[in-house]
From TrEMBL:
Residues 1-106, 108-246 form the C2 domain. Gene3D superfamilies: C2 domain. This is CPNE9 protein. Belongs to the copine family. Coiled coil: none annotated. One of its GO terms (cellular component) is plasma membrane. Keywords: Calcium, Metal-binding, Repeat. Residues 290-491 form the VWFA domain. It holds the Pfam family C2. Signal peptide: none annotated. It comes from Sinosuthora webbiana. The keyword Cytoplasm does not apply. The keyword Repeat applies. InterPro entries: C2_dom, C2_domain_sf, C2B_Copine, Copine, Copine_C, VWF_A, vWFA_dom_sf.
Length: 533
Protein backbone atom coordinates (compact mmCIF):
# COMPACT_ATOMS: atom_id res chain seq x y z
CA UNK A 1 0.00 0.00 0.00
CA UNK A 2 1.08 3.55 -0.45
CA UNK A 3 3.81 4.36 2.03
CA UNK A 4 2.55 6.76 4.60
CA UNK A 5 -1.05 5.58 4.81
CA UNK A 6 -1.67 6.65 8.37
CA UNK A 7 -4.63 5.37 10.34
CA UNK A 8 -5.99 6.97 13.46
CA UNK A 9 -7.53 4.69 16.08
CA UNK A 10 -10.09 6.05 18.50
CA UNK A 11 -10.69 3.96 21.61
CA UNK A 12 -13.72 3.63 23.91
CA UNK A 13 -14.67 1.02 26.50
CA UNK A 14 -18.07 -0.10 27.73
CA UNK A 15 -19.09 -1.77 31.01
CA UNK A 16 -15.60 -2.05 32.49
CA UNK A 17 -15.00 -4.04 35.64
CA UNK A 18 -15.59 -1.95 38.74
CA UNK A 19 -12.48 -2.19 40.92
CA UNK A 20 -12.85 0.78 43.23
CA UNK A 21 -14.91 0.29 46.31
CA UNK A 22 -15.67 3.96 46.76
CA UNK A 23 -15.88 5.21 43.19
CA UNK A 24 -15.80 3.80 39.67
CA UNK A 25 -12.48 2.79 38.06
CA UNK A 26 -10.10 5.35 36.53
CA UNK A 27 -9.13 3.52 33.32
CA UNK A 28 -6.27 4.04 30.86
CA UNK A 29 -5.69 1.97 27.69
CA UNK A 30 -2.15 0.96 26.76
CA UNK A 31 -1.53 -0.11 23.15
CA UNK A 32 1.17 -2.69 22.38
CA UNK A 33 2.28 -3.54 18.84
CA UNK A 34 3.71 -6.94 18.01
CA UNK A 35 7.15 -6.82 16.43
CA UNK A 36 6.80 -8.32 12.93
CA UNK A 37 7.77 -11.98 12.79
CA UNK A 38 8.34 -12.36 16.55
CA UNK A 39 6.30 -12.91 19.68
CA UNK A 40 7.60 -9.71 21.29
CA UNK A 41 5.22 -6.86 22.15
CA UNK A 42 6.34 -3.24 22.32
CA UNK A 43 4.42 -0.47 24.03
CA UNK A 44 3.25 1.98 21.37
CA UNK A 45 1.44 4.51 23.50
CA UNK A 46 -1.34 5.09 26.01
CA UNK A 47 -4.52 7.08 26.24
CA UNK A 48 -5.14 9.69 28.91
CA UNK A 49 -6.68 8.56 32.20
CA UNK A 50 -10.40 9.22 32.58
CA UNK A 51 -11.53 9.42 36.18
CA UNK A 52 -14.41 7.60 37.69
CA UNK A 53 -16.08 5.93 34.70
CA UNK A 54 -16.81 2.43 33.42
CA UNK A 55 -17.63 3.73 29.92
CA UNK A 56 -14.67 5.90 28.90
CA UNK A 57 -14.40 7.60 25.48
CA UNK A 58 -10.73 8.46 25.20
CA UNK A 59 -9.66 11.65 23.45
CA UNK A 60 -6.02 10.75 22.85
CA UNK A 61 -5.78 8.73 19.66
CA UNK A 62 -3.22 6.29 18.29
CA UNK A 63 -1.82 7.06 14.83
CA UNK A 64 -0.35 3.98 13.14
CA UNK A 65 1.25 3.36 9.75
CA UNK A 66 -1.02 0.93 7.92
CA UNK A 67 0.14 -1.73 5.46
CA UNK A 68 -2.49 -3.91 3.80
CA UNK A 69 0.09 -6.58 3.04
CA UNK A 70 1.24 -7.10 6.65
CA UNK A 71 -0.43 -8.69 9.64
CA UNK A 72 -0.22 -5.89 12.19
CA UNK A 73 -1.12 -7.39 15.55
CA UNK A 74 -2.25 -5.04 18.31
CA UNK A 75 -2.90 -5.63 21.99
CA UNK A 76 -4.92 -3.27 24.14
CA UNK A 77 -4.47 -3.51 27.92
CA UNK A 78 -6.95 -1.70 30.13
CA UNK A 79 -5.75 -0.84 33.61
CA UNK A 80 -5.93 1.84 36.27
CA UNK A 81 -3.29 4.59 35.90
CA UNK A 82 0.21 4.33 37.24
CA UNK A 83 0.38 0.58 36.89
CA UNK A 84 2.76 -0.26 34.05
CA UNK A 85 1.43 -3.33 32.30
CA UNK A 86 4.61 -5.28 32.88
CA UNK A 87 4.13 -4.83 36.60
CA UNK A 88 0.37 -5.14 36.70
CA UNK A 89 -0.86 -6.96 39.72
CA UNK A 90 -3.87 -9.17 39.09
CA UNK A 91 -5.89 -6.87 41.31
CA UNK A 92 -5.27 -3.92 38.97
CA UNK A 93 -5.91 -5.49 35.62
CA UNK A 94 -9.20 -4.58 33.90
CA UNK A 95 -8.83 -6.79 30.82
CA UNK A 96 -7.21 -6.90 27.38
CA UNK A 97 -8.06 -7.48 23.74
CA UNK A 98 -6.01 -8.73 20.79
CA UNK A 99 -6.87 -7.52 17.29
CA UNK A 100 -5.17 -7.08 13.91
CA UNK A 101 -5.25 -3.56 12.45
CA UNK A 102 -6.66 -5.05 9.22
CA UNK A 103 -9.63 -6.42 11.16
CA UNK A 104 -10.58 -2.95 12.37
CA UNK A 105 -10.25 -1.45 8.89
CA UNK A 106 -12.03 -4.44 7.34
CA UNK A 107 -15.02 -4.21 9.69
CA UNK A 108 -18.12 -2.33 8.75
CA UNK A 109 -17.45 1.42 8.63
CA UNK A 110 -14.11 0.81 10.30
CA UNK A 111 -15.75 0.08 13.68
CA UNK A 112 -14.97 -2.98 15.75
CA UNK A 113 -16.20 -4.03 19.18
CA UNK A 114 -14.33 -6.76 21.06
CA UNK A 115 -14.91 -8.32 24.48
CA UNK A 116 -12.14 -7.64 27.00
CA UNK A 117 -10.79 -10.82 28.59
CA UNK A 118 -8.13 -11.81 31.05
CA UNK A 119 -9.77 -11.60 34.46
CA UNK A 120 -10.82 -15.16 35.33
CA UNK A 121 -14.49 -15.64 36.02
CA UNK A 122 -15.43 -12.01 35.37
CA UNK A 123 -17.10 -10.18 32.51
CA UNK A 124 -14.71 -7.35 31.67
CA UNK A 125 -16.90 -5.38 29.25
CA UNK A 126 -15.88 -4.43 25.72
CA UNK A 127 -13.45 -2.22 23.84
CA UNK A 128 -14.62 -0.23 20.81
CA UNK A 129 -12.16 0.75 18.10
CA UNK A 130 -12.75 3.18 15.25
CA UNK A 131 -10.19 3.39 12.43
CA UNK A 132 -10.02 6.43 10.18
CA UNK A 133 -7.49 7.13 7.50
CA UNK A 134 -5.84 10.47 8.18
CA UNK A 135 -6.57 12.71 5.28
CA UNK A 136 -3.28 12.96 3.54
CA UNK A 137 -4.98 15.58 1.41
CA UNK A 138 -5.30 13.42 -1.68
CA UNK A 139 -7.03 15.98 -3.87
CA UNK A 140 -5.72 16.69 -7.35
CA UNK A 141 -6.18 20.07 -8.99
CA UNK A 142 -6.50 20.85 -12.68
CA UNK A 143 -6.07 24.47 -13.71
CA UNK A 144 -5.47 26.59 -16.77
CA UNK A 145 -3.94 30.06 -16.98
CA UNK A 146 -3.36 32.67 -19.65
CA UNK A 147 -1.57 36.03 -19.63
CA UNK A 148 -2.06 39.45 -21.22
CA UNK A 149 0.32 42.21 -22.24
CA UNK A 150 3.44 40.68 -20.72
CA UNK A 151 6.63 42.75 -20.98
CA UNK A 152 8.55 42.24 -24.21
CA UNK A 153 11.96 40.79 -23.38
CA UNK A 154 13.38 39.64 -26.68
CA UNK A 155 15.18 42.00 -28.98
CA UNK A 156 13.67 40.35 -32.03
CA UNK A 157 10.07 39.20 -31.84
CA UNK A 158 8.00 38.95 -28.69
CA UNK A 159 8.64 36.99 -25.46
CA UNK A 160 8.43 33.20 -25.06
CA UNK A 161 6.68 33.02 -21.69
CA UNK A 162 6.35 30.19 -19.18
CA UNK A 163 5.27 30.00 -15.53
CA UNK A 164 7.06 28.50 -12.53
CA UNK A 165 5.07 27.59 -9.41
CA UNK A 166 6.61 27.45 -5.92
CA UNK A 167 5.10 26.32 -2.65
CA UNK A 168 6.27 28.01 0.53
CA UNK A 169 7.80 25.98 3.35
CA UNK A 170 7.40 26.42 7.10
CA UNK A 171 10.76 28.21 7.27
CA UNK A 172 9.86 30.82 4.65
CA UNK A 173 11.83 29.22 1.81
CA UNK A 174 10.24 28.19 -1.50
CA UNK A 175 10.26 24.85 -3.31
CA UNK A 176 9.55 24.61 -7.03
CA UNK A 177 6.52 22.42 -7.70
CA UNK A 178 5.48 22.99 -11.32
CA UNK A 179 6.63 24.51 -14.62
CA UNK A 180 4.28 25.14 -17.51
CA UNK A 181 5.32 24.62 -21.10
CA UNK A 182 6.78 27.54 -23.08
CA UNK A 183 4.42 29.36 -25.45
CA UNK A 184 6.54 30.80 -28.25
CA UNK A 185 6.56 34.40 -29.52
CA UNK A 186 3.57 36.00 -27.80
CA UNK A 187 2.82 38.50 -25.04
CA UNK A 188 -0.66 36.96 -24.59
CA UNK A 189 0.03 33.25 -24.02
CA UNK A 190 -2.60 30.63 -23.21
CA UNK A 191 -1.00 27.68 -21.40
CA UNK A 192 -2.31 24.11 -21.54
CA UNK A 193 -4.35 22.93 -18.54
CA UNK A 194 -2.20 20.96 -16.08
CA UNK A 195 -2.79 18.72 -13.06
CA UNK A 196 -0.98 18.83 -9.73
CA UNK A 197 -1.62 17.17 -6.33
CA UNK A 198 -2.78 19.66 -3.70
CA UNK A 199 -0.04 18.29 -1.44
CA UNK A 200 2.58 19.41 -3.94
CA UNK A 201 1.03 22.86 -4.25
CA UNK A 202 0.57 23.73 -0.58
CA UNK A 203 1.26 20.65 1.54
CA UNK A 204 -2.42 20.53 2.45
CA UNK A 205 -2.37 24.01 4.01
CA UNK A 206 -4.91 26.01 1.99
CA UNK A 207 -3.69 29.42 3.17
CA UNK A 208 -0.01 28.90 2.54
CA UNK A 209 1.57 31.19 -0.05
CA UNK A 210 1.95 29.89 -3.57
CA UNK A 211 4.42 32.03 -5.54
CA UNK A 212 4.35 32.14 -9.33
CA UNK A 213 7.16 33.55 -11.46
CA UNK A 214 6.73 34.50 -15.10
CA UNK A 215 9.81 33.99 -17.30
CA UNK A 216 10.79 34.57 -20.88
CA UNK A 217 12.44 31.41 -22.20
CA UNK A 218 15.91 31.70 -23.73
CA UNK A 219 17.63 28.94 -25.65
CA UNK A 220 20.84 29.27 -23.62
CA UNK A 221 18.98 28.68 -20.34
CA UNK A 222 19.42 32.23 -19.03
CA UNK A 223 15.66 32.81 -18.91
CA UNK A 224 14.65 36.42 -18.32
CA UNK A 225 12.50 37.25 -15.32
CA UNK A 226 9.32 39.09 -16.38
CA UNK A 227 7.61 39.33 -12.99
CA UNK A 228 5.89 37.48 -10.19
CA UNK A 229 2.67 37.26 -8.22
CA UNK A 230 1.55 35.38 -5.10
CA UNK A 231 -1.67 33.57 -4.23
CA UNK A 232 -2.82 30.61 -2.13
CA UNK A 233 -4.74 27.43 -2.74
CA UNK A 234 -7.82 28.99 -1.17
CA UNK A 235 -7.64 32.01 -3.46
CA UNK A 236 -7.01 29.89 -6.55
CA UNK A 237 -9.99 27.70 -5.72
CA UNK A 238 -12.33 30.70 -5.90
CA UNK A 239 -11.79 30.60 -9.65
CA UNK A 240 -14.33 27.79 -9.79
CA UNK A 241 -16.96 30.53 -9.96
CA UNK A 242 -15.13 33.47 -11.55
CA UNK A 243 -11.98 34.40 -13.45
CA UNK A 244 -9.20 35.64 -11.16
CA UNK A 245 -6.80 38.19 -12.58
CA UNK A 246 -3.35 38.66 -11.05
CA UNK A 247 -1.00 41.56 -11.69
CA UNK A 248 2.50 40.45 -12.64
CA UNK A 249 4.99 42.68 -10.83
CA UNK A 250 8.72 43.10 -11.27
CA UNK A 251 10.11 44.54 -7.99
CA UNK A 252 13.23 45.99 -9.68
CA UNK A 253 11.17 47.92 -12.23
CA UNK A 254 8.78 49.05 -9.52
CA UNK A 255 11.63 50.67 -7.60
CA UNK A 256 13.16 52.31 -10.67
CA UNK A 257 10.16 53.66 -12.52
CA UNK A 258 7.66 56.05 -10.99
CA UNK A 259 5.01 55.35 -13.61
CA UNK A 260 5.39 51.55 -13.46
CA UNK A 261 1.99 49.83 -13.29
CA UNK A 262 2.78 46.15 -13.92
CA UNK A 263 4.49 43.77 -16.32
CA UNK A 264 1.20 42.32 -17.56
CA UNK A 265 -1.53 40.21 -16.00
CA UNK A 266 -2.17 36.50 -15.57
CA UNK A 267 -5.72 35.15 -15.56
CA UNK A 268 -6.78 31.88 -14.00
CA UNK A 269 -9.27 30.54 -16.55
CA UNK A 270 -10.36 27.35 -14.82
CA UNK A 271 -9.73 25.41 -11.62
CA UNK A 272 -11.22 22.06 -10.62
CA UNK A 273 -10.52 19.57 -7.83
CA UNK A 274 -10.85 15.80 -7.86
CA UNK A 275 -10.35 13.39 -5.01
CA UNK A 276 -7.91 10.51 -5.28
CA UNK A 277 -9.50 7.61 -3.46
CA UNK A 278 -7.47 5.06 -1.53
CA UNK A 279 -7.79 1.37 -0.88
CA UNK A 280 -9.00 2.14 2.66
CA UNK A 281 -11.80 4.37 1.27
CA UNK A 282 -13.21 1.41 -0.68
CA UNK A 283 -12.86 -1.09 2.16
CA UNK A 284 -14.56 1.35 4.55
CA UNK A 285 -17.24 1.95 1.94
CA UNK A 286 -18.08 -1.75 2.12
CA UNK A 287 -16.09 -3.35 -0.72
CA UNK A 288 -15.61 -7.02 0.19
CA UNK A 289 -12.52 -9.01 -0.79
CA UNK A 290 -13.49 -12.57 -1.79
CA UNK A 291 -10.69 -15.05 -1.51
CA UNK A 292 -10.53 -18.27 -3.58
CA UNK A 293 -7.77 -20.89 -3.38
CA UNK A 294 -6.59 -23.29 -6.09
CA UNK A 295 -3.99 -25.93 -5.32
CA UNK A 296 -1.87 -27.92 -7.75
CA UNK A 297 -2.45 -31.68 -7.38
CA UNK A 298 -0.33 -32.81 -10.34
CA UNK A 299 2.02 -35.77 -10.20
CA UNK A 300 5.11 -33.59 -10.65
CA UNK A 301 4.73 -32.61 -6.97
CA UNK A 302 5.74 -36.14 -5.90
CA UNK A 303 3.77 -38.66 -3.84
CA UNK A 304 2.37 -36.90 -0.75
CA UNK A 305 3.48 -39.79 1.47
CA UNK A 306 7.15 -39.28 0.50
CA UNK A 307 9.29 -36.72 2.40
CA UNK A 308 10.62 -35.46 -0.96
CA UNK A 309 7.10 -34.47 -2.08
CA UNK A 310 6.12 -30.80 -2.10
CA UNK A 311 2.82 -31.91 -0.52
CA UNK A 312 4.54 -33.87 2.27
CA UNK A 313 3.40 -32.72 5.69
CA UNK A 314 5.56 -34.05 8.50
CA UNK A 315 4.23 -34.09 12.04
CA UNK A 316 6.61 -31.19 12.72
CA UNK A 317 6.21 -29.01 9.71
CA UNK A 318 3.55 -27.90 7.26
CA UNK A 319 4.21 -28.42 3.55
CA UNK A 320 5.20 -25.45 1.38
CA UNK A 321 1.62 -25.48 0.03
CA UNK A 322 0.09 -25.21 3.49
CA UNK A 323 2.57 -22.52 4.57
CA UNK A 324 1.91 -20.32 1.53
CA UNK A 325 -1.84 -20.74 1.91
CA UNK A 326 -1.71 -19.76 5.59
CA UNK A 327 0.60 -16.78 5.06
CA UNK A 328 -1.57 -15.14 2.41
CA UNK A 329 -4.94 -16.31 3.70
CA UNK A 330 -4.52 -15.08 7.25
CA UNK A 331 -4.13 -11.51 6.04
CA UNK A 332 -6.86 -11.56 3.41
CA UNK A 333 -9.44 -13.10 5.72
CA UNK A 334 -9.60 -9.88 7.76
CA UNK A 335 -11.22 -8.18 4.74
CA UNK A 336 -13.76 -10.91 3.99
CA UNK A 337 -16.85 -10.62 6.15
CA UNK A 338 -18.22 -14.15 5.76
CA UNK A 339 -14.77 -15.81 6.06
CA UNK A 340 -15.96 -18.52 3.64
CA UNK A 341 -13.36 -19.43 1.04
CA UNK A 342 -14.08 -21.52 -2.05
CA UNK A 343 -11.11 -23.90 -2.44
CA UNK A 344 -10.29 -26.05 -5.45
CA UNK A 345 -7.68 -28.52 -6.57
CA UNK A 346 -6.54 -29.12 -10.13
CA UNK A 347 -4.68 -31.83 -12.05
CA UNK A 348 -5.85 -34.93 -10.12
CA UNK A 349 -7.97 -37.99 -10.72
CA UNK A 350 -10.96 -37.66 -8.45
CA UNK A 351 -13.04 -40.42 -6.86
CA UNK A 352 -15.36 -42.24 -7.35
CA UNK A 353 -14.63 -42.76 -11.08
CA UNK A 354 -11.07 -41.44 -11.36
CA UNK A 355 -11.92 -38.62 -13.80
CA UNK A 356 -9.26 -35.95 -14.26
CA UNK A 357 -10.46 -32.65 -12.84
CA UNK A 358 -9.07 -29.11 -12.99
CA UNK A 359 -11.41 -27.57 -10.48
CA UNK A 360 -12.56 -30.11 -7.92
CA UNK A 361 -13.76 -28.69 -4.58
CA UNK A 362 -11.33 -29.61 -1.81
CA UNK A 363 -14.27 -30.18 0.57
CA UNK A 364 -15.84 -32.58 -1.96
CA UNK A 365 -19.01 -30.47 -2.08
CA UNK A 366 -19.73 -29.37 -5.65
CA UNK A 367 -22.81 -27.36 -4.58
CA UNK A 368 -20.85 -25.38 -2.02
CA UNK A 369 -17.05 -25.48 -2.35
CA UNK A 370 -16.57 -22.90 0.46
CA UNK A 371 -14.51 -23.77 3.52
CA UNK A 372 -14.86 -21.97 6.85
CA UNK A 373 -11.78 -19.86 7.45
CA UNK A 374 -8.20 -20.62 6.45
CA UNK A 375 -8.23 -23.50 8.96
CA UNK A 376 -11.17 -25.00 7.06
CA UNK A 377 -9.27 -24.74 3.76
CA UNK A 378 -6.20 -26.42 5.30
CA UNK A 379 -8.33 -29.27 6.67
CA UNK A 380 -10.02 -29.88 3.31
CA UNK A 381 -6.65 -29.71 1.53
CA UNK A 382 -5.14 -32.39 3.78
CA UNK A 383 -8.30 -34.49 3.41
CA UNK A 384 -8.11 -34.27 -0.43
CA UNK A 385 -4.48 -35.39 -0.44
CA UNK A 386 -5.67 -38.68 1.08
CA UNK A 387 -8.49 -39.27 -1.40
CA UNK A 388 -7.39 -38.11 -4.87
CA UNK A 389 -4.68 -39.43 -7.16
CA UNK A 390 -2.09 -36.84 -8.23
CA UNK A 391 -2.02 -36.74 -12.01
CA UNK A 392 -1.86 -34.04 -14.71
CA UNK A 393 -1.70 -31.96 -16.83
CA UNK A 394 -1.27 -28.60 -15.06
CA UNK A 395 -4.15 -26.47 -16.35
CA UNK A 396 -4.77 -23.02 -14.82
CA UNK A 397 -7.44 -21.75 -17.20
CA UNK A 398 -10.46 -23.67 -15.81
CA UNK A 399 -10.13 -22.27 -12.28
CA UNK A 400 -9.30 -18.74 -13.52
CA UNK A 401 -12.41 -18.83 -15.73
CA UNK A 402 -14.46 -20.13 -12.81
CA UNK A 403 -13.52 -17.18 -10.56
CA UNK A 404 -13.86 -14.77 -13.50
CA UNK A 405 -17.41 -16.04 -13.99
CA UNK A 406 -18.25 -15.17 -10.38
CA UNK A 407 -16.46 -11.80 -10.59
CA UNK A 408 -18.42 -10.91 -13.74
CA UNK A 409 -21.73 -11.21 -11.84
CA UNK A 410 -21.09 -8.16 -9.62
CA UNK A 411 -19.04 -5.39 -11.22
CA UNK A 412 -20.30 -2.36 -9.26
CA UNK A 413 -17.24 -2.30 -6.99
CA UNK A 414 -18.90 -3.90 -3.96
CA UNK A 415 -17.07 -7.20 -4.55
CA UNK A 416 -13.45 -7.83 -5.50
CA UNK A 417 -12.00 -11.31 -5.98
CA UNK A 418 -8.51 -12.57 -5.21
CA UNK A 419 -7.53 -15.99 -6.55
CA UNK A 420 -4.50 -17.65 -4.96
CA UNK A 421 -2.97 -20.39 -7.14
CA UNK A 422 -0.23 -22.49 -5.53
CA UNK A 423 1.66 -24.59 -8.05
CA UNK A 424 4.93 -26.34 -8.78
CA UNK A 425 4.89 -24.34 -11.95
CA UNK A 426 5.08 -26.68 -14.95
CA UNK A 427 2.07 -25.20 -16.78
CA UNK A 428 0.46 -27.14 -19.66
CA UNK A 429 -2.23 -24.78 -20.96
CA UNK A 430 -0.24 -21.57 -21.40
CA UNK A 431 -2.28 -20.26 -24.35
CA UNK A 432 -5.65 -20.85 -22.67
CA UNK A 433 -4.33 -19.36 -19.41
CA UNK A 434 -3.16 -16.18 -21.17
CA UNK A 435 -6.55 -15.88 -22.84
CA UNK A 436 -8.29 -16.39 -19.46
CA UNK A 437 -6.12 -13.74 -17.75
CA UNK A 438 -6.59 -11.18 -20.53
CA UNK A 439 -10.37 -11.66 -20.22
CA UNK A 440 -10.20 -11.50 -16.41
CA UNK A 441 -8.17 -8.26 -16.51
CA UNK A 442 -11.34 -6.25 -17.14
CA UNK A 443 -13.08 -7.81 -14.11
CA UNK A 444 -12.84 -6.99 -10.39
CA UNK A 445 -10.23 -9.62 -9.64
CA UNK A 446 -6.54 -10.25 -9.00
CA UNK A 447 -4.53 -13.45 -9.27
CA UNK A 448 -1.67 -14.40 -6.97
CA UNK A 449 0.56 -17.27 -8.04
CA UNK A 450 2.97 -18.83 -5.55
CA UNK A 451 5.46 -21.19 -7.16
CA UNK A 452 6.74 -23.98 -4.87
CA UNK A 453 9.61 -26.34 -5.52
CA UNK A 454 12.80 -26.07 -7.57
CA UNK A 455 11.35 -25.52 -11.09
CA UNK A 456 12.31 -22.65 -13.37
CA UNK A 457 9.30 -20.36 -13.42
CA UNK A 458 9.77 -18.46 -16.71
CA UNK A 459 6.16 -19.06 -17.74
CA UNK A 460 4.95 -17.55 -14.45
CA UNK A 461 7.13 -14.48 -14.93
CA UNK A 462 5.49 -13.96 -18.31
CA UNK A 463 2.01 -14.21 -16.77
CA UNK A 464 3.02 -11.70 -14.09
CA UNK A 465 3.17 -9.00 -16.78
CA UNK A 466 5.35 -6.61 -14.76
CA UNK A 467 7.97 -6.36 -17.50
CA UNK A 468 5.78 -6.80 -20.58
CA UNK A 469 2.00 -6.35 -20.63
CA UNK A 470 0.38 -9.76 -21.15
CA UNK A 471 -1.42 -10.34 -24.44
CA UNK A 472 -3.37 -13.11 -26.10
CA UNK A 473 -4.24 -13.29 -29.81
CA UNK A 474 -3.60 -9.59 -30.28
CA UNK A 475 -5.63 -8.51 -27.21
CA UNK A 476 -3.71 -6.87 -24.39
CA UNK A 477 -4.59 -7.21 -20.71
CA UNK A 478 -6.49 -4.11 -19.62
CA UNK A 479 -4.59 -4.04 -16.33
CA UNK A 480 -1.84 -6.08 -14.69
CA UNK A 481 -3.72 -8.46 -12.37
CA UNK A 482 -1.17 -11.23 -11.78
CA UNK A 483 1.47 -11.25 -9.07
CA UNK A 484 3.92 -14.17 -9.01
CA UNK A 485 6.48 -15.09 -6.33
CA UNK A 486 8.67 -18.19 -5.98
CA UNK A 487 8.27 -19.71 -2.51
CA UNK A 488 11.95 -20.68 -2.30
CA UNK A 489 12.99 -17.02 -2.16
CA UNK A 490 11.32 -16.82 1.25
CA UNK A 491 12.64 -19.87 3.04
CA UNK A 492 15.35 -18.43 5.18
CA UNK A 493 18.27 -20.40 6.55
CA UNK A 494 17.73 -19.37 10.14
CA UNK A 495 14.50 -21.38 10.04
CA UNK A 496 12.40 -18.44 11.27
CA UNK A 497 9.26 -19.51 9.46
CA UNK A 498 7.05 -16.81 10.94
CA UNK A 499 9.26 -14.07 9.58
CA UNK A 500 9.79 -15.65 6.15
CA UNK A 501 6.04 -16.21 5.70
CA UNK A 502 5.33 -12.62 6.72
CA UNK A 503 7.75 -11.53 3.98
CA UNK A 504 6.05 -13.81 1.45
CA UNK A 505 2.59 -12.43 2.26
CA UNK A 506 3.94 -8.90 2.12
CA UNK A 507 5.33 -9.35 -1.38
CA UNK A 508 2.34 -11.16 -2.92
CA UNK A 509 -0.23 -8.82 -1.40
CA UNK A 510 1.62 -5.56 -1.97
CA UNK A 511 0.12 -5.07 -5.44
CA UNK A 512 -3.51 -5.87 -4.54
CA UNK A 513 -4.50 -2.37 -3.32
CA UNK A 514 -3.17 -0.78 -6.53
CA UNK A 515 -4.87 -3.43 -8.68
CA UNK A 516 -8.18 -2.85 -6.90
CA UNK A 517 -7.80 0.92 -7.35
CA UNK A 518 -6.98 0.57 -11.04
CA UNK A 519 -10.20 -1.41 -11.55
CA UNK A 520 -12.30 1.19 -9.69
CA UNK A 521 -10.65 4.07 -11.51
CA UNK A 522 -11.11 2.70 -15.02
CA UNK A 523 -14.78 2.04 -14.19
CA UNK A 524 -15.17 5.42 -12.48
CA UNK A 525 -16.51 3.71 -9.35
CA UNK A 526 -16.35 5.91 -6.28
CA UNK A 527 -16.27 4.43 -2.78
CA UNK A 528 -19.62 4.37 -1.06
CA UNK A 529 -19.53 6.83 1.78
CA UNK A 530 -19.50 5.22 5.19
CA UNK A 531 -22.77 6.58 6.57
CA UNK A 532 -22.30 8.86 9.53
CA UNK A 533 -23.81 7.42 12.69
Amino acid sequence: SVPGTKVELTVSCRNLLDMDTFSKSDPVVVLFVQVSGSSEWKEFGRTEVIDNTLNPDFVRKFVLDYYFEEKQNLRFDVSPPGSHSALLGAQDFLGQAFVALGEVIGSQRGRLERPLTGVPGKRCGTILLLAEELSNCRDIVTMQLCANKLDKKDFFGKSDPFLVFYRSNEDGTFTICHKTEVVKNTLNPVWQPFTIPVRALCNGDYDRTVKIDVYDWDRDGSHDFIGEFATSYRELSRAQSQFTVYEVLNPRKKCKKKKYVNSGTVTLLSFSVESEFTFVDYIRGGTQLNFTVAIDFTASNGLPSQPTSLHYASPYQLSAYALALKAVGEIIQDYDSDKLFPAYGFGAKVPPDGKISHQFPLNNNVENPSCAGIEGVLESYLQSLRTVQLYGPTNFAPVINQVAGTAAQVTDGSQYHVLLIITDGVISDMLQTKEAIVTASSLPMSIIIVGVGPAEFEAMEELDGDEVRLSSRGRYAERDIVQFVPFRDYVDDSGNQVLSMARLAKDVLAEIPEQLLSYMKTRDIKPRRADPE
